Structure formats: C-alpha cells, structure tokens
Automatic annotation (TrEMBL), chain A:
Cellular compartments annotated: Mitochondrion
Annotated GO CC locations: mitochondrial large ribosomal subunit
Stated name of the protein: Large ribosomal subunit protein uL3m
InterPro entries, A to Z: Ribosomal_uL3, Ribosomal_uL3_bac/org-type, Ribosomal_uL3_CS, Transl_B-barrel_sf
Domain of life: Eukaryota
Gene: Mrpl3
Presence of keyword Transit peptide: yes
Similarity annotation: Belongs to the universal ribosomal protein uL3 family.
TrEMBL record, chain B:
GO biological process: translation
Gene: Mrpl19
InterPro entries on file: Ribosomal_bL19, Ribosomal_bL19_sf, Translation_prot_SH3-like_sf
Listed PANTHER family: LARGE RIBOSOMAL SUBUNIT PROTEIN BL19M, RIBOSOMAL PROTEIN L19
Keywords (A to Z) from UniProt: Mitochondrion, Ribonucleoprotein, Ribosomal protein, Transit peptide
GO molecular function, one term: structural constituent of ribosome
Keyword check for Cell inner membrane: no
Full protein name: Large ribosomal subunit protein bL19m
Length: 243, 247
C-alpha cells in the first residue's frame, strides 16, 4: 500500500495489484451454464503442472496455456467475448478513473472466539466474575426452547471470499502491469485477487468507455508507460500551490 | 642585472607555483542514503519497492530534499490554503524520522510563546515548497522524543534564525549535550534501558537508576532472528539512486 496525492494536495492510500500472466481459458455459452449471460473462464498466475491430475490439466491443454494457480469465471455479454488461448490479458484493460470491485480470500485467523469473530462485548474483568470474561453469555430465550440457525458462535474465522466494492483506479503502469486501486483490498500481501468492473449503480457513468473487448498488446495503440487519472499529482510536476 | 644570450635584459620569470594536493578531496566522498530508501524486512515483492523508489527519485529530481539527521534544525515552507500568504513556514528541531518509502515523515519541534508545538511533515508531500537546513548537528540519540519532558529552553529555537554557514566538511559535528529534565512524572520512563538514551543528564537517585536496570533485556543483542543486515541492500540502492539522480 502506498500514498498517492491529488492535485489539490489531498492524500489517499492506494493498493498495488499486479496482473501476472492472465489468459482466457474457456468460453461457456449461455445455454451451457444456464445463467443470463455467457461466461469466460480466466486463469491467473503460472504454476507447476506436476501437482495436478490429468483431468484437471485438460482445460489448460485445450487452451494451449501453462497451468494457472487460480481460475475464475466472469459473466460477459456476447459482444465482449475473447477467443480462449493465446491472447493474454494486461493491466491496460482497466483505465484510470474507472471503478472496480476486488474479490479475494481474507486472511485466515483460525478458530476464534466470539469477541474477535463477531465483536461481542464479553463480560467485565473484575467485580466477582467467575471464569467468565470472553464468553457469549446467553444464546437463546426460554420461549424459543431451541437455538436458531446461524447463531453467532465461536468458529473458524477468515479464509473466505469477500469483495470490496467501488474502488477507484488511480493509475496504471503498463510496463510492469500494475493497477493502483484506492483503499484497501481483502487478503494478505501477494495473494491472488479477482478484479472486475464495478456493479454499483453510482459507478455506471465512469465505466462508459473502457478498452473493448480488451487491450491488445500487438494492436495499433501504443500506450505510455504510466497512465494517470486527471486528478493525480505526478511527481514530474512542481510542488502544489494554492493561488 | 643579468644579461641573456641576446644581449637584452632578461624578463623577470616568477618562481613556479607550488602544487597543493588537497588530501580532503582525495578521500572518498561521503555516502548518505536517506533511511526511507531502505526497504523493511518482510514478504513484500521487491518490485513494489523498486517502483516506489522510482517515484521517490522522480520527486527528488524536481524538489531538493537535503541530507539531514535527527537533531538538525530545519525550516519547512508548506502550501496552506487557509494561511494569508497561502504558505506557512515552520522552524524546529527534527526529533524523529519515521516511515519507509513515499510515506516517510519527520517531526519538527519548537516552543513558540511558551507553547510546545510539534508538526509531522511528509517528505514527499507535494504541498511542501522548501526544506532548508539551518543548523547541522547530530545528537547522541536517534529519537529525541524526550525533549517533551525536558526543560523548554532545550526546544526553543529562534524562528528567524539565519542558516549557520558550514564548509563542505566530511563530518557532521555531534553535539554531546546532556539535557536536563523537568521533575517526574514523564510521558515515558526514559531512564529504562529499552530506550537506550544517552543524551539526558539523569538527576535521579542511584536507587532509582538501579531499579530501572531491572527491565533490561541483555539477551536482545544476541538474538539472531532480529538481525537485519542492511549493508548489501544499502550498497545496491545507493548505486541505483546516485546514478539516477546524476542523469
């Protein structure tokens, strides 16, 4: 995470996400998947092919791509389909000023008690409490004579998929394929993360003109090494002054 | 008068000038790498530090950040939208340098009209217009937070102080000042060995000093897992940074 300053002098915290060897693996049509839109399977970082069974490796062999650490599905409209196989996906697929949702597995905390997991207040430390300082207390009423499903109790915390919505993209580095995303993102450092165009109704306007269907490196467009949002203070400019 | 072979009087030849070999310049140039360039120990990808360093060098090319340590007296002019001149100038002694990478900060302390003021500035904040070093002197410690509990005369510095002129010597003078403290209670127990402060003149009784030594942890200096040898990393980063700045 890094600080980034706007032209008006405000500071924002930014998370760096690296796009590492992303390829499209397979196209699943609307009828096959049974959903409203067709899906595209996309694979992430490269990994060794020796620790997976033959049946799992079939998808990668079909696409002609080394084995990927993580495979995710994206719901895609029919006009934005990409042919699976050789075309890699780059960070320039996103542009500064867009809004993005980031999904990842949260940091696993193991088996945790009710105070850490659900934020219960516990009991006082002194004034006669016998062996009760971090316990949940009462779990149901007398009339119910049962415990409801989904009662908040101690258990394994973390290591589940969570999404942070509506994160602004401030800057993109095309040389190293890095996306600078506003705020914090679930997961530990160097964990695998799924980045998707935001579905929030307030962010629909900013996602109007993305590179469609994606950014092709061998195409005609030659992008500069760094793409900045219009508000971001670039370090090549002189210091900020208020007139 | 002497007569040369031509017969005319010889022109006065001055004696040859003595060649002065300045041994100071022949000594190696002092290497100073700002502490925020050194990456902290952790499992982050070194690519992140490389990209952060590129940004830091880019900012240093546009805006000069002088070499300074804890104990120097600095004057910082920062852009302020609510001030009259839209710029505010603060003079103070640097008591702490914290943070790594772009978020590096330094805290300046001064006593203005009997009120102690500490301001934490970010080195790479674009609102800072100028940083001038008014007086160069290192102190015995890396962290002068104890000045909060010292007598106010040790933290007062004249706001209109003129910069003390200094030749380009290699060594920065170390001020071995022992500071006198206000009566206890202090904000932190500075006599305890964990802070390792050498710049205070403790006027506490011997008994209290011995009792403070109870909290010493002599095994810490032998702990191998805490060792973080930065010499090789510093060499590499120093080369990279100096080459980029010369361009």
């Amino acid at each position: 995470m890094m600080p980034i300053w706007t032209k008006s002098g405000k500071k924002h915290a930014v998370t760096l996400l690296k796009v590492q060897d992303c390829h499209v693996l397979r196209y699943i049509s609307k009828e096959e998947s049974g959903g409203k839109t067709s899906k595209l399977l996309v694979g992430g970082k490269n990994a060794s092919p020796f620790s997976k069974s033959e049946s799992a490796m079939e998808i990668f062999k079909e696409a002609g791509v080394p084995r990927k650490q993580k495979v995710t599905t994206f719901n895609v409209t029919d006009d934005a389909l990409i042919k699976p196989g050789s075309t890699p996906l780059y960070a320039a697929h996103f542009r500064p000023g867009q809004f993005v949702d980031v999904t990842a597995k949260t940091i696993g905390k193991g088996f945790q008690g009710v105070m850490k997991r659900w934020g219960f207040k516990g009991q006082p430390a002194s004034h006669g409490q016998t062996k009760t300082h971090r316990r949940p207390g009462a779990i149901s009423t007398n009339k119910a004579s049962k415990v409801y499903r989904g009662k908040k109790m101690p258990g394994k915390m973390g290591n589940i998929y969570r999404t942070s919505f509506g994160l602004k993209v401030w800057r993109i580095n095309t040389k190293h394929d890095i996306i600078y995303v506003n705020g914090s993102v679930p997961g530990h450092t160097n964990c695998l993360v799924k980045v998707r165009d935001s579905k929030l109704p307030t962010c629909k306007d900013s996602n109007k003109n993305p590179p469609f269907p994606t950014f092709f490196a061998d195409g005609d467009e030659k992008l500069p090494e760094d793409l900045y949002d219009e508000d971001v203070f670039q370090f090549t400019d002189p210091s900020v002054t208020y007139a | 008068t002497r007569v040369s072979s031509d017969g005319k009087p010889a022109k006065f030849q001055p004696p040859p000038k003595p060649v002065i070999i300045d041994k100071q310049k022949q000594r190696e140039e002092r290497r100073f790498l700002s502490p925020e360039f050194i990456p902290p120990r952790g499992r982050t990808d070194p690519l992140k530090f490389y990209i952060e360093r590129k940004d830091m060098i880019q900012r240093r090319k546009v805006f000069n950040i002088p070499e300074f340590y804890v104990g120097h007296i600095l004057a910082v002019t920062a852009a302020d939208p609510y001030a009259n001149d839209k710029a505010s100038r603060f003079v103070g002694i640097c008591i702490q340098r914290g943070g790594k990478g772009l978020g590096a900060t330094f805290v300046l302390r001064n006593v203005i009209e009997d009120q102690g003021v500490e301001i934490c500035y970010e080195l790479y904040n674009p609102r800072i217009q100028a940083i001038e070093v008014l007086k160069l002197e290192k102190r015995l410690d890396d962290n002068l937070m104890y000045l909060r509990d010292a007598l106010p005369e040790y933290s007062t510095f004249d706001v209109n102080m003129k910069p003390v002129s200094r030749l380009d010597h290699d060594e920065i003078p170390v001020n071995k000042l022992q500071v006198r403290m206000k009566p206890k209670p202090w904000s932190k127990r500075w006599e305890r060995p964990k802070y390792n402060i050498k710049g205070i003149k403790f006027e506490l009784p011997e008994k209290k000093m011995k009792e403070a030594q109870k909290w010493s942890q002599p095994w810490l200096e032998f702990d191998m897992l805490r060792e973080y040898d930065t010499s090789k990393i510093e060499e590499k980063i120093w080369k990279e940074v100096s080459e980029e700045l010369k361009k």
